[in-house]
Amino acid sequence: MKLMQKKMCILIVGPLPPPSGGIATAVSDLLKSALAKEFRLVHVDNSTKRPVNKKGKIDLLNTATFLSQILLLVIKIIYYRPQIVQIETSSGISFLKNSMLILLAKLARRKTVVSIHGSGQRFIEHYRAFPDIAKTAAHFVLARCDAVRCFPNNGLMALCRNLASKRILFGLSPMV
Fold first, then answer.
1. What is the rounded average pLDDT of the residues 149-174?
2. Percent helix, strand, coil in the chain (nearest 5)?
3. Does 74 score more than 70 pLDDT?
4. Binning pLDDT at 50, 70 and 90, where does residue 70 land?
5. Among 18, 17, 38, which residue's Cα sits nearest to residue 174?
6. Sign (positive/negative) of CA torsion 147, 152, 158, 159?
7. pLDDT for the residue 175
8. Is the peptide bond before 19 cis (omega within 30 degrees of 0)?
9. Which of 5, 89, 106, 122 could form a disulfide with 98 if both were Cys (CB 3.0 to 4.6 A apart)?
């Protein structure tokens, strides 16, 4: 009689299409990748499904959507008990919003991986434009991640090494 081994659970937080492209396509590909054979992949969709002209704006609908995403994250952490929470993000307001999700995962004592999408230059520009309190918050959040994934970019590599005390993984492919 062969014993069934329980698969390690990974909770992936990120948007799904539509619209296609960017992080949404990367998350969709990740959920359909060979990882699904090796791990139990669970997903929280953190997209807003809003028109492009409304994205990045804080209003009642956006706030309600974010609060429901927080609740869904907490429920899935409690129900599935993932060993790893991987949060896909970009820069600016998206990173600050996802920082809340990262901190919730850390509060639940989950290993946490943050994947920073984009060229890296945009993240650096947004980071430098942040007020000091937001820079401190970004540093606080990244330093608590168990790993940070990003595309190879000299400026972003240096920034991540400065901000994060854990592992920095370069090259965003559909892997954890």
1. 64
2. 50, 15, 35
3. yes
4. very high
5. 38
6. negative
7. 44
8. yes
9. 89
**How far is 113 from 148, CA to CA, in rounded Å?**
6
In the predicted model, is pLDDT for residue 1 greater than 50? no
Enumerate residues 6+ apart whose C-beta is below 8 A from 108: 74, 77, 78, 85
Tokens of 17: 């299409």
Beta bridge partners of 89: 116
Could you report the per-residue pLDDT of 11-42, keeping only the tens digit for each? 999 999 988 888 999 999 999 999 889 999 99
Q: Which long-range contacts (CB under 8 A, 24 or more apart) does 168-175 make?
A: 172/26, 172/115, 172/117, 174/26, 174/29, 174/30, 174/33, 174/35, 175/33, 175/35
Q: Distance (Å, rounded) from C-alpha 141 to C-alpha 69?
A: 19
pTM of the predicted model as reported, rounded to 2 decimal places:
0.85
Furthest C-alpha separation in the chain: 61
- Give first-to-last CA distance, the chain, whole Å: 32
Please tell me which of 52-56, 71-75, 94-98 the model is most confident about, judged by mean pLDDT.
71-75
Cβ-based neighbour number of residue 95 at 10 Å = 23
Report the candidate in 44, 47, 50, 43 with the shortest Cα–Cα distance to residue 15: 47
- The answer to whether 71 and 77 have CB atoms below 8 angstroms apart is no
